[in-house]
Amino acid sequence: MTVAQEILKQVNAPHGFDGMALLYSKEQRIPGSTQYHIRRYAAQDSWTAEDTGMFVYHYNASTPKDNYLELRFCISGNRYCDNKLCGTCNQIPTTDCSGPLRTIDVFSFHFTSTFLHQFVHHVKLDNKKDDLLAFKYPENFSKTFQLSLKKRATLDALLNHSYTGSLENIFVNAKVHELLVYSLEHVVEEKDAVFSCKFLADERGTESIYQAREFLLQHIGDPITIKELSRKVAMNECYLKKGFKEVFGTTIFDFYQQQRMEHAKYLLYEKALSVTDVSALLGYSSISHFSAAFKKHTGLKPCELLN
Questions:
Q1: How remote is the C-alpha of 86 from its chain's centroid?
Q2: Of the candidates 264, 150, 261, which has an alpha carbon nearest to the alpha carbon of residue 210?
Q3: How far apart are CA 160 and CA 281, in angstroms?
Q4: Are 176 and 69 in contact (CB under 8 A)?
């Protein structure tokens, strides 16, 4: 077993590993949402390991509410400085600064069966990825894998973005779901997916799909039609719908609604906003419409997340 895998096994340990200093820690514990923890440790000089991922599937037929998926990642080679003004500098270390520290970055993302139910309750289960999300596969297992460039890029984005507050929450939620899609592809198919839509082979095509997602995230409170979105990214409406499903594993509508509801949880639980305020911020015409949508997508009433 590699050192990276050993760390991944102990990813929930509260202290540094083998004397490594904890430099940074961020977590989310919002009820009904993805639970995650990101930790950055100062790497020891002797550290050598490949970037590693782990997919954990926990199934218990007698207590289905305890079923969960967990993603764990360990990456190395990044640099960290707690001074945001100079964290990306390339200056030679001085007597007042030893320079950015080389890090070991450890991530864990926990998805409960209740949370994942929203993705499968209204679709026909026709492949192993669906079976895993719906917990129809009857055996526990875990699998380690090396990280592809797109998984590594997503993890790096979680560490190096400049968003704060509500925008950070929206951005992180989208990236976490991206990792879930990529990891399911890897576990089931033993390789990263190859796009079946021919127009996605063109870099311009995939760029338009990502632009569409970014536009949705940046306008989470401004409902938009698919026709309007297709004009924004200069892509045929039919191509946009097919390409979005191909790249992100979900429809535009389901992605947008899911991101809105995740952000609503954050605003209710972390920011302690009222149901009325959250409903207005997300562009709903009435509290009842918002409450119904929230219940449908999360299984919770908005008032259940109020502190």
A1: 27
A2: 150
A3: 27
A4: no
CB atoms within 10 A of CB 82: 10
Q: Where are the domains of the chain?
A: 3-148
Global model pTM greater than 0.85: no
Condensed to tens digits (0 to 9), the pLDDT of residues 2-52 reads 445 455 455 544 444 556 788 889 999 998 899 999 998 887 766 666 788
Sequence-separated (6 or more) residues with CB below 8 Å from residue 38: 24, 25, 26, 27, 105, 106, 107, 158, 159
Q: Which residues contact 147 (CB under 8 A, 6 or more apart)?
A: 51, 52, 53, 73, 75, 155
- How far apart are alpha carbons 119 and 99 in whole angstroms? 45
Cα–Cα distance for residue pair 72/107, rounded to 1 Å: 6
Q: Report the C-alpha gap between 18 and 10 in whole angstroms.
A: 12
The total number of residues written for the chain in this structure: 307
Q: How many CB atoms lie within 10 A of CB 284?
A: 20
Question: Any idea which of 36-45, 61-70, 226-235 has the lowest mean pLDDT?
Answer: 36-45
Task: List the structure tokens of 155.
Answer: 């993890």
Residue 43: other Cβ atoms inside 10 A:
22
Q: Alpha-carbon distance 208 to 213, whole Å?
A: 9
Tokens matching residue 277? 């305020």
Element (H, E) at 19: none
Higher confidence at residue 130 or residue 275?
Answer: 275
CA 174/CA 154 separation, integer angstroms:
10
> In angstroms, rounded to a whole number, what is the distance separating the alpha carbons of residues 287 and 293?
10
Q: How far apart are CA 3 and CA 50, in angstroms?
A: 9
Q: Taking the C-alpha atoms of 55, 60, 66 and 69 in order, what is their torsion angle to the nearest 10 degrees?
A: 10
What pLDDT is attached to residue 123?
A: 65
Cβ neighbors of 190 (< 8 A, separation 6 or more) are: none
* Element of type H or E holding 34: none
Q: What's the burial of 22, exposed, middle or buried (CB within 10 Å: 0-12/13-18/19+)?
A: middle
